[in-house]
């Protein structure tokens, strides 16, 4: 068949969209819900309401770009380990459904989109965007040398409310700093729970994680403590920002969601995370962001 025939062109287009679909599935773009609400929450705290439409748009673009770059790079960094782990061997990279070159290009595009959107927000956001990229991409390498990798992941998402605030103002306030700290401990807590699935694998390959270092029981207790601290800091954020009872109610509901996960996982042997694990955690951010908006506009 002629290489320039319409049929061959159609096949190329279909392959392109299949590759894009595999990349989007690989980076779990739907899990952007974990950080995005906190970026808007930081912006709303700074603006004392919804920020301007242009600012909101570029916050959204920046967060999607950052998420795409971070997850694609994570898959690149973890590909050798994913290929050896029965739980992850079917991921797109180790299974050969996408190439390392394509994933690297996707990472670069995500990083460029993030920095471009930051430049559209203000000078401070643009100047700090390389530092933010260093954190969110560098996290993927930390499991090779420190058990604090869970907290580094927390930091990478904790930058979201700081970025949202800086998109509106050129400085930082105490309430958003406390919110960022809350996000760090919230993320670290559920990442420890997620890492319980690979406790033996991480230990066998010499990878650093709290479950591999402490064992499942002590790691669960530490995750519980992380979430206790996170719930307290989410509450303190509301006090400092004067958000009132609507937000306080959302903090209570968020705490219930967090600790319900601990109860459920403690009764499961062998450990298998439910399909709704990320959805439930996403509800924490969505609920707090919605309550912040309601508290500010009402």
Q: Approximately what portion of the residues adopt beta-strand conformation?
A: under 5%
User: What's the gyration radius in Å?
Assistant: 20 Å
Number of strands: 0
Poorly predicted regions are none
First-to-last CA distance: 66 Å
In short:
With 298 residues, the protein is mainly alpha-helical. It has helices at residues 6-26, 36-47, 53-82, 100-121, 123-142, 149-168, 174-195, 199-205, 210-214, 216-241, 244-266, 277-297.
How would you explain this protein's 3D organization?
With 298 residues, the chain is mainly alpha-helical. It has one domain (26-297): Orthogonal Bundle (Tetracycline Repressor, domain 2). 77% of the residues lie in helices and 0% in strands. It contains twelve helices and no strands. The longest helix is centred in the first third of the chain and has 30 residues, at 53-82. It is globular. The mean pLDDT is 88.
How is the topology of this model organized?
Elements: H1 6-26, H2 36-47, H3 53-82, H4 100-121, H5 123-142, H6 149-168, H7 174-195, H8 199-205, H9 210-214, H10 216-241, H11 244-266, H12 277-297
